[in-house]
Amino acid sequence: MTYHTTRRRILGFTSCLALMGSLMATTGNSQASPTPQRAFTDDSASQSAQYAPLPSNQTFWDALALEPRDAWSRLAEAFEWQEDVDQARVQHWIDHYRQSPRNITEITERARPWLAWITERVEERGLPGEIALIPFIESSFDPTARSHRGAAGLWQFMPGTGHALGLRRGGGYDGRLDVARSTHAALDYIEMQAEQWYEGDIELSLAAYNAGAGTVNNARSAALSRGQTASYWDLKLPRETMAYVPKLIAISAIIAEPEHYDVELPRIEATPAIAEVPVTRPLKLDEAAHLAGISRTELAELNPGLLGHQADPRHVERLLVPADSAERLVARLSSGTSRRAVAADGDDVYVVRRGDSLSGIASRHAVALTDLARWNGIERLDALQPGQQLTLSGS
Length: 395
Fold this sequence. Notes:
It is an enzyme of class 4 (lyase). One of its GO terms (cellular component) is membrane. The protein is mostly helical. It has 3 domains: 220 residues, Orthogonal Bundle (Lysozyme); 62 residues, no CATH class; 49 residues, Membrane-bound Lytic Murein Transglycosylase D, Chain A. The chain has 18 helices and 8 strands. It has a two-stranded antiparallel sheet with strand order 1-2. A two-stranded antiparallel sheet has the order 3-6. A two-stranded antiparallel ribbon has the order 4-5. α10 crosses α11 and α13 packs across α14.
C-alpha cells in the first residue's frame, strides 16, 4: 500500500528543486544510532467508551464520556501501517525488541517530555503516527545524541542535511539539537521527499531519510528493471535501510498492543508537556527561566541546542518551555515592565540605557570588559541597544 501526505503549505517549485538538489548531494540523514535499538511498551493502547447513568435532565450524548487517553494510546490511534506487521522483517525486529525489556523503561522515560508534542506535530500534518517514533530508532529519544559519523539530535541530522534544511549552527547554537526546530525540519524533509520523488509514498521517503534519495532512486530503477513495483519492500538497499521501516513498524506494533507483547510503558499524558515561545530579543537562559518561573536547569534541558546558554533571535526562533509556564513567559516578555522587574530582583542583570557603553557598564559594576562581553555573547562592543539586558556574572 502507498501512503500519501497532505501538504499544509505550498512549496515554490524553484526553491524546492534547489533544496532537493542540495539534499541529493548528502549521503543520507543518519547512518547509525548512537545507542542500541530497543523495545517499547504501552499501558493503555486501547480505549473504550464509558456510559454514565442518565440523570433526568441529560440526553444519551450528554452522558457519553471517553476514558482519558495517554500519549501512547493517542499515538496508536494514528498508526497506519499495522497491516505490515506480518512481514518477516517486521517480526524479526519485534522478537529482537522483546528480548531487551530492561531497556524499555529507560527509553520511554527519556521520551516523556517530547512524545505528546511530537505526536501533535505529526497529527497536524496528517502523517502516519509511526513517524513520531523515528527518534526511538534514531537516537533512543536523547536530544543530545551524537553518532560517530557526525549525526546529531533526536532526528540524527548529518551536518550537510541539517544545513540544507535551515538548521543553523554557530553563534552558540546548533539547530540539530533544537528539538522544536529539528522536528519541524524532519517532518518537512519527509513530506518534501515523498512528494518530490515518490508520489507521496512515505515508506520510500523514510528509506531516503536514512540512506539518501540517490541510493533509493537507484534501487527503485533496479527493481523496475526486474519487473517489480519498486515499493519499499521490493528494494535492495543497504542493510541498515532494509531494516529501517521494519524497525519502525515493529516498535509501533508493540505500542499498539502492549498486552499482547507482555510489555508496559510508563504513563505519559496525552496533552503536550511543552510549548514553543517566540524569541523576539536576545535572552539569557537565566533571565528566561526567571520570567517563566522555572529553574535554569529545566529550561536548559528543554533547549539543548543553546550551546552558549543564550537565545539570540538571529539564530533561535523559539524556546521550548513547560506548557504551564508558556503563557507567563510570553506575557512577561511582551510587558514593558518585565525587564525592569528582572533587574530589580538582584544585581546580576543590567538593563542598557541610552548613552551606555559596555566599558562604562563594566567599570561601574567592577567586572572585566572581556568577561562582560563573553557572558553576553557580544562581538561588537559598540552594538548595545537601549533596553537590552546584560548579565553581570558568568553564572
